Amino acid sequence: ALSKPLDEAFSLWEQLLEHPGVPQVRSPEQTLSSLQLLAALYRLQGKPIQALESFLLLRSLCRRLGDNLGVANSLCQITRILLQLQCPSQAQVNL
């Protein structure tokens, strides 16, 4: 029940980012922060798969915006989660 609002937010972000190109948002920086916060909240709730999916959305948006530092940070977080899930071969692919 606690993650229902997060799941709804994730679904909305996923719909917004399913189309190619940069989404029409008021503030790309705020959108990046919101996705980072979403992933962090999933991690705090002990939901690594949802956190992973959120970081994948974040990586996608960072790539579209040309934010190389954001892409690198997302990849580090994705790799960290994959290693925690004991998926070293998948983690290596991200590096």
UniProtKB/TrEMBL annotation:
InterPro entries from the UniProt entry: TPR-like_helical_dom_sf
Domain of life from the UniProt record: Eukaryota
Protein name: ESPL1 protein
Protein species of origin: Hylia prasina
Gene name as annotated: Espl1
